[in-house]
Design goal:
The chain is an alpha/beta fold and 287 residues long. The chain has 2 domains: 178 residues, NAD(P)-binding Rossmann-like Domain (Rossmann fold, 3-Layer(aba) Sandwich), CATH 3.40.50.720; 84 residues, N-(1-d-carboxylethyl)-l-norvaline Dehydrogenase, domain 2. β5, α5 and β6 form a beta-alpha-beta unit. The chain is globular and about 55 Å long.
Length: 287
Amino acid sequence: MSSSVQTLGVVGAGTMGRGIAQTAAQSGVSVLLHDVSEQLIGRGVESIRQQLERQVAKGKLAADDAQAALERIRPAPGLEQLRAADFVVEAASENLALKAELFAALDRVCRPEVILASNTSSISITRLGAETQRPQQVIGMHFMNPVPVMKLVEVIRGLATDDATAAATHELARALGKQPVEVRDFPGFVSNRILMPMINEAIFAVYEGVASAADIDTVMKLGMNHPMGPLTLADFIGLDVCLAILEILHDGFGDPKYRPCPLLKQMVAAGRLGKKSGAGFYRYDQP
């Protein structure tokens, strides 16, 4: 399915941003990739190049198609360069102050008709929309990690988001080969409202000595048919990200069932953040 979006602006060249950029480029959409420095953008583009090369090596992608996709991604070190974008997806760190500042800046830079979407996994779309003069054109577009593989996109309407914005976002998601599911603007939306309490409960089970991390993961994989255990998944997501989302759920609902496990807080304080730091519930710094 084609979309009216010819050029997609992506803000953030980290794991999620570069995944969105790669997916768009492989779908035939031109991408303007922005981050706070040219070095970070360069790292993001290099990571995309490596991912495409892996697909070529596995025979899943033609070398010409990989090169064409890479050429569709252009660095945009200046935020003002996103004025050329037809649609913008923000994929910066999960921090309200940072995202609010970005949305205010994007509102000043982008053309009046452009939709501003956030890849936030838990922050209020209504709150981000309020930072702009176009709250009706602000929406959540929550991709799953790894973006090139996972089919789901949660489409989150803020209080002011209009029907035309929602329809255009659904259309773009489908053009990128994704399945959009529309949800309301509640803390954690659907995915993390259900996933994070499960991960938190698994951490409580480790904390209370019920079983080892590996055995808890085995129970969920073999007993519940989950492809990955909750503690392995937490390590892949990042324990700091899990903690941030649980705190948003706890603050947003005021319900003690979302209280982050003390062990999770302790591990984050110690810098054991999962795969990205080399250690979480498992070690990743050895073969």
